[in-house]
Automatic annotation (TrEMBL):
Residues 6-60 form the HTH lacI-type domain. Gene3D superfamilies: 3.40.50.2300, lambda repressor-like DNA-binding domains. It comes from Variovorax robiniae. The lineage of its organism: Bacteria, Pseudomonadati, Pseudomonadota, Betaproteobacteria, Burkholderiales. SMART domains: HTH_LACI. This is LacI family DNA-binding transcriptional regulator. One of its GO terms (molecular function) is DNA binding.
Length: 332
């Protein structure tokens, strides 16, 4: 015989309290006296009760869930951000619900609809480029929202990240200082990579440099994409002296293609990546790259949301620039 489902009323009876008290312990435990809270939590654990978190079920109508949307979890930098976010939110009593878009703007809007329909308490988005529908729905939802991995002057609510354009400019300045004059860019076909190219190209133009040879691959990109992309760049400009890759995965593929062709790095061709994966320092030669504190980014977003969700007094700033740095190694 199938066992009967444990109800909130069963927990209330076992703990010797009213049903509304159980609801309050589950939704806002700090509002209940410690002894009562302990009795309810013991009954929940003993009976194996799983609360129904649909909006309106609990006294506070809070789901204790934060929805987060990333382009992909196959890239370590997004996974690190989500790990940092999850740990901070978990310590604050919230669970993280993840969705991935595959770099598709319409898929992001459908995920936003799904999360808002399940009454999440807050949202985290990757990047600042969204459909008008996403912006409108989140602004109307009245819940905290954080955009990350980029910066903008007019976030939906809050933004935690860095300037992708400035990162591209910093890479160009470094390569120009190293005497490089023929430039390439190997990127993923997505908004943040295009901003890195924009900054890279602008800095080179200001210095009187020539046109940047570019190639883009559909994200999420792979090591094979990096190798194939460098081959295409060299087919257009065999005299390339420096290539900026929009992520370390592409840069590693480019490095392997250089080795296959017998092109010395950095003597013949300088290579720069982006994100500073652990393998960047371990490859031969070690890869110069843009270092992003991806885990710290997630932690910062989590702290901002926890503060807003706890309704602490005082205004929470909307724009948080965590910056970036160049990890200078032998490849450039």
């Amino acid at each position: 015989m199938k066992p009967a489902k444990v109800l909130m009323s069963d927990v209330a009876k076992a703990a010797g309290v009213a049903r509304v008290t159980v609801s309050r312990v589950l939704s806002d435990p700090d509002s209940v006296a410690p002894a009562t809270r302990a009795a309810v939590q013991e009954a929940v654990a003993r009976l194996g009760y799983v609360p129904n978190l649909n909006a309106g079920t609990l006294a506070s109508s809070r789901s204790r869930i934060v929805g987060a949307i990333v382009p992909t979890l196959s890239n370590a930098w997004f996974a690190d951000t989500m790990d940092g976010l999850s740990k901070v939110l978990g310590a604050a009593g919230y669970q993280l619900l993840l969705g991935q878009t595959g770099y598709d703007a319409d898929a992001e809007e459908k995920l936003v609809d799904a999360f808002l329909g399940r009454r999440v308490d807050a949202m985290v988005l990757t990047g600042t480029a969204h459909t008008a529908g996403v912006r409108l729905k989140l602004q109307n939802a009245g819940i905290p929202a954080v955009e990350c991995w980029d910066l903008c002057d007019d976030p939906i609510d809050m933004v935690v990240g860095f300037s992708n354009e400035a990162a591209g400019e910093a890479v160009a300045a470094h390569l120009l200082a190293r005497g490089r004059r023929r430039f390439g860019f190997l990127g993923a076909d997505e908004d943040r990579a295009r901003k890195r190219l924009q900054g890279y190209r602008a800095a080179i133009a200001r210095a009187g440099g020539g046109e940047v040879v570019t190639h883009s691959a559909a994200p999420p990109t792979s090591i094979d994409d990096g190798a194939a992309g460098l081959a295409k760049l060299l087919a257009v400009e065999p005299r390339l002296q420096a290539v900026f890759c929009s992520n370390d995965t592409l840069a590693l593929g480019a490095l392997l293609e250089c080795r296959r062709r017998g092109l010395a790095v950095p003597e013949h061709l300088s290579l720069v990546g982006f994100s500073d994966l652990p393998v960047a320092a371990a490859c031969v030669p070690p890869l110069t790259t843009v270092r992003i504190a991806s885990r710290e980014l997630g932690e910062r977003a989590g702290l901002l949301l926890a503060r807003r969700l706890s309704r602490e007094p005082g205004e929470v700033p909307r724009i948080h620039d965590i910056g970036f740095s160049l990890a200078l190694r032998e490849s450039a």
